Amino acid sequence: MILKEIIKILNAEVIVEGMGLDVDIKTVCASYLMSDVLAFSKAESLLITGLTNPQTVRTAEMTEIVVICYVHGKQPGEVTIELAKKIIYL
Q: Which residue in 7, 40, 75 sits closest to 67, CA to CA?
């Protein structure tokens, strides 16, 4: 499914822009345990998590996850957002 369709369905807010919204999301990985994400996720996935710390961004980068969806109304802090911006623009 195309990312912009997912954003519309979830009524999601885009926090860090820079990646095109026409990315094809192949699979979804949902977990609070980043060790599970490392072990079981696939590239070009969307990560759904309630964790908002910088490790979510680092894990996504290592596993080639292209999008993180933070749930339960949680917002990542500035450190997490700034790390995501650096990774997008490398």
A: 7
Closest residue by Cα to residue 72 from 49, 45, 46: 49
Enumerate the domain spans of the chain.
Answer: 3-88
| d(C-alpha 49, C-alpha 31), whole Å | 5
d(CA 86, CA 29): 23
* pTM given for the model: 0.90
For the chain, first and last CA: distance in Å? 25
pLDDT (tens digit per residue) in 13-43: 999 887 788 999 999 999 999 999 999 999 9
Report which residue type is found at 57. V
